[in-house]
């Protein structure tokens, strides 16, 4: 498997303009990408099907300053629950340090679940994937020397690059990166400009800039997305060519100005209102505030916790298992490098089947 993976890597190369773009991105430019996009998934008839969110925030990874990128979409298409989530740490040079990607389609008689884990380790890009179709589980591991994947862009890094290109409003010609296709095969990822246009966002008209991204395998299979952005990088519209589902921004946000981008958010404390016996509780209040500050500090240091719990809760509510503890154990064990993935997914599938039978 490793030999064939490396062979695929040799067949596709990142272009010079793509490598130049990665080298040109600076810290100040990335600071402009720290915000959240919230869109609604709609059908061709305009019916709401679900939601799509992307957030980028500062984080740390093995004591290295980086960015936590979290994207997720969940909804119902033709009454079938489906969704995808991406959570990754991306360095200031747009290298993916670690990424977890989860996709699922909950068909009544034949569910499909894909999980992949990418991590940089000991000079290698290690890729683990698990595909569960009904009761069948397929596992695969590939390793790519970092020297062979120069110009690689993960799904999370792609979201950052899109925001940067939208802010620049200029795309170099022949900008081709390395990327993974839906089967986690090394492929080429091409970007081109769709130019500026007017677009309706809710009831208002806005100037937007379009970017096309195409991922293809061996020049045969293609997946193309069209994305449109406001001048400050906010996503207004995202659609895969050929798909009946479109992600749309429902209302124009307040544009992010330069004076706001460079300022850290200020969290104002609300004044506490106490009765006349406030002095009797002063010691208690001091301890309470200290504990609260410790909790807030921990959450700020680990922003991935909020993203991870959001994905788990959404998946839990879609599955609705009778045994929540076993379901949680299987869900979080699936990403553990010290746990047998096959045993986890076999157990989860068996539990799901028993619940359905009951």
TrEMBL record:
It is found in: Cell membrane; Cytoplasm, Cytoskeleton; Nucleus. Coiled coil: none annotated. Belongs to the CATIP family. It comes from Denticeps clupeoides. Keywords: Cell membrane, Cilium biogenesis/degradation, Cytoplasm, Cytoskeleton, Membrane, Nucleus. One of its GO terms (cellular component) is plasma membrane. Signal peptide: none annotated. It comes from the Eukaryota. Plays a role in primary ciliogenesis by modulating actin polymerization. This is Ciliogenesis-associated TTC17-interacting protein. SUPFAM superfamilies: Dimerization-anchoring domain of cAMP-dependent PK regulatory subunit. The keyword Hydrolase does not apply. InterPro entries: CATIP_N, DD_CATIP. GO terms for biological process: actin filament polymerization; cilium organization. Residues 18-244 form the Ciliogenesis-associated TTC17-interacting protein N-terminal domain.
